[in-house]
């Protein structure tokens, strides 16, 4: 068998990239900034944010669908990425405002006076005015961009190293990652965490230096950036899982011990995929929060990471496009229902208001998907394009708990 | 009889302060006449003898007269110079009453009357004089009230009356209180330093808050500056070096500046203001304004202004140091007697040690009750995880369901005791049913797929939580506890524990015993253990693993329901109640190890103590406490990846 | 004869139960050895210890010419050092094709970074084809291994072991659940493999062991009861007692 180019071996990549390009083009042509104006700026932002969610879902799929690590912490990495870019956005934006107001003064301000004024402006809400040490690089876009990947990456590296080397697996690991997420969220909720406690960072939609550009344009630029990041992330992920590395990952998912006896240092593989996906999540977050405009610790709460797992599960794990479909579908439907756009259902004796009942619907449909359609929405693709497989009556694929079951792997 | 007793008491207590007047059933009017001049002069400086004369009269009406005076209801009849109590009828007419008998003397024109208007200073003196009467009042409630007001607001003058009232005190409780208060007042106000020191030493083992509240003012200090050595007459607590933590250099210098002993050191802002005032043609002293954006150029410009004589000179750092070196900064005790402050400091230290021990005991009790709550919350989770390898993310919602069951029961069953007794079994039944239903409808299909189970149960969790919100709303619902659970078991001012916490502790013990009984003495327990250890083998021995799973899941959920009622009594019932405990419950199971009740117990104990311990180090910040606790657990897992009590060998399934 | 693996004085206890009791065992560089013993004799635990899955309470396990201690190494390091293991139940990666399974087992760098950039060379692919022919799965290369029959999976696993190019092969009950022809094939595979490396076979089936025609070690209650040719061992009274007396 000859090795052919990546896209040739996996036509789904090309299809995906084509659809993504088509989508981006479509949105551009319908946008207020560059097209007919059919789509409102806020909806363009929603779409841009959805692309970022798709990217973090791809990362989640790598770590869960391929490597079998059900991480309940990837949204925390996402949030950390957002915080890192948010620091720069907030700092520079405040600097613009402060410098503007100080220019009126009789004596021009010193550097230190400007920094102090920015500090007072930013940390006034938590009763402080000093810049904490973690803001040391907030004035440098380049360094904060490095931190966008470095901070989640480092946290994932340290946590993963601790967790994997003690052979914590399965639900134990999930719970531990959840605990990590909770610890991080609780830490950020403190006023003296240095990141404005539960106020979070706000005003992130105002991009320093682009104050004259209308939001309709900025939102389009972010949508393009998000689409590009998703495309890159998707191709990178596809490349990672396509070769022997992917083979080993799936081996770890299905039978960790066996991979170990083949001589592969399983812990290193897990650590690597955990860290790399954390970095991807950080990038996705860094693109997401300028579009959302605000980030606060509630975004990082464990439940967000669980939702991430839900998206991937509904979309179909173990296939990258499944993660994208799941994230896009569930988050858009979710905002449709919770945004009050879904019509209420009048039962005569009771009116079902979807704002109240959507979560119940989501929870139950999630249970249903887990039980009846473990392959998720992506499984529909198999139904359409399925090659005929012999009917196999095996037991579970691997002896370990948590391995894929026959039905899921049968594709 | 009482009257006689009271009279003799009054006699006794006043014997020391003023010459006694042996006027048994006499009129008070002569005394008032005797002091009439002072009373009418109504000056704070001279009034004391008059008040004393009335108070020391030994007459039963003395108290009423003083109160009347204090209330500005005492009037002088100009026609005969006699004093009366008057009630206003209208502007012109007042009704007079005899001060001795209270007899109504009829109406009199206002022109004939003159009101005695004691100023606030005099009223205060009268109040002090009244204390002795109140402290010896025949009604114990009045005595108690007087004592309480004195406890709240102790003063020097109350010491003598208090001492006098002790001897005749018949109520043992009040007597103890009086004696205690007497000690405290002695510590603070006695004229004799020896007596104060004796009292301080006597109370130095008492951890009461009042003792500390009395000792602290004795040790109050003021920071003072001395040019040269401080006089020996002052009771110096300690001398401070400028630049130390207790006295920053800037602060020390500022003291000198405000005392007028040193020239002001202009801050950057003041310099900036001065510069701004001296801008001419876009320049300050020849420096362009736009260049004034560093501290250095500003300083240069300012120095030029000084040289031109426009701005006042600013002392250099060296000058500041030299000035500071000339002075001595010391904290001076307000209390002049060194022996007293030394004794007070020693007593405070000794009390601090005792308080620390007491706090440690209190913390232990707190931690124990927290551990009981975690144990109750986690035990069901541990059962389901141990037997089936299933993590039930909806476990917290079962706890919530139990709590709401308690709330609903309370709406229908009157009386908190009865409703709790109904709620506990009902909560068990409801959550048992919910658990069995969930096992049958969902978990059964997902055996051996623990990660999917985790997510599916999470789906149920969000649905249940939202359902609770839709039914009960988002506001907290109270669960009233029975009277016998109200209050706390108070050992002393430092150590106390509420009865609810004791009850939860007892409940945890009951469940431990119950669980051990079920697991070790019943058929279900035997089957459960068999299924836990080897499902396939158990199945081939005729045990129906499905049934065992169903029952253990129900049991675990049922216990969560009961835990919910207990937690609901202790905290408010909201739809997020379960969320608050679920992560700690998970941690308990992870730390404790799977499949062993003792592990869960140890895990809960460890987490409870850990959390309280961290909170003790950093009491203001419970968020940080939880953060550190989780980090600790992650590190703990490094050393015991499978928990405190772990299965080893083949049974561990690794 | 030089020794490849030396196990001496090893004991391990699980919750008070002594699974291995002062066990000593040696094997040379190119030797075929069968280990037999009743259930609970400690056969699997012995393998667990050698492969690093279980750490013994005492004793030492030395490997190779340099006499490296295996006790401080992780499973992956031991496997890289040249010890391959085949499990009782066939454990191949059912989700992946036969080719991927074999490629994964090929002796190549195991570190995550080098694997990430590793692409199958012609040489690797031809080696895989060679192995597939050896184990009789040449036609099945692109099939998912989950679709193979039980016996085919066993062979695939043996093929994966061979692909690892280990110096020592630990094989746990290779013949379980095989048809007679499949057993025949398995026997010849193992005998062939033992020509160039050490092979330890744990087996219940005396007939299979007889066909291997090699030295036999009998384990009982965690220690060696007897060692030697099969006929010699089966004549041993103690062995007869252990096998028949229960």
Can you put this structure into words, describing what you see?
- The complex is a heterotrimer of chains A (411), B (654) and C (246).
- Chain A has helices at residues 6-9, 11-30, 41-66, 74-102, 111-123, 141-165, 170-189, 215-242, 244-254, 256-261, 266-292, 302-315, 320-338, 354-372, 379-385, 406-409; strands spanning 201-202, 294-295, 345-346, 351-352.
- By secondary structure, chain A is mainly α.
- Chain A has one domain (6-300).
- Chain A starts with 5 loop residues before the first helix and ends with a helix.
- Mean pLDDT of chain A is 86; it is low at 388-411.
- Chain B has 5 domains: 2-138, no CATH class; 150-218, no CATH class; 221-265 and 315-333, no CATH class; 267-314, no CATH class; 358-652, ABC transporter involved in vitamin B12 uptake, BtuC.
- Chain B has helices at 2-15, 29-34, 36-41, 48-55, 62-70, 120-135, 140-152, 159-167, 172-189, 193-202, 209-218, 249-258, 268-277, 295-307, 317-326, 338-388, 395-412, 416-441, 450-472, 499-521, 523-533, 535-540, 545-570, 577-592, 597-617, 622-639, and strands at residues 74-77, 82-88, 93-97, 104-109, 113-115, 221-227, 236-240, 283-284, 287-288, 327-333, 488-490, 496-498.
- A 5-stranded antiparallel sheet of chain B has the order 4-3-2-1-5.
- In chain B, β11 (488-490) and β12 form a beta hairpin.
- In chain B, α16 (338-388) packs across α24 (577-592) and α20 (499-521) runs antiparallel to α23 (545-570).
- The longest helix of chain B has 51 residues, at 338-388.
- In chain B, 39% of the residues are buried.
- Mean pLDDT of chain B is 82; it is low at 9-24 and 648-654.
- Chain C is of the alpha/beta class.
- Chain C has a domain at 5-92 and 165-244: Rossmann fold (3-Layer(aba) Sandwich).
- Chain C has helices at residues 43-51, 75-81, 98-105, 112-117, 122-134, 150-163, 180-193, 206-212, 230-235, 237-244, and strands at residues 5-14, 17-27, 32-36, 58-63, 68-69, 83-86, 168-172, 198-202, 215-220, 223-229.
- In chain C, strands 6-7-8-3-9-10 form a 6-stranded mixed sheet, sandwiched between helices. A 4-stranded antiparallel sheet of chain C has the order 2-1-4-5, with helices on one face.
- In chain C, β1 and β2 form a beta hairpin.
- In chain C, α6 packs parallel to α7 (180-193).
- The longest helix of chain C has 14 residues, at 150-163.
- Classes of the chains: A mainly alpha (411), B alpha+beta (654), C alpha/beta (246).
- Chains in contact: A-B, A-C, B-C.
- The interface between A and B is large, with 58 and 57 residues.
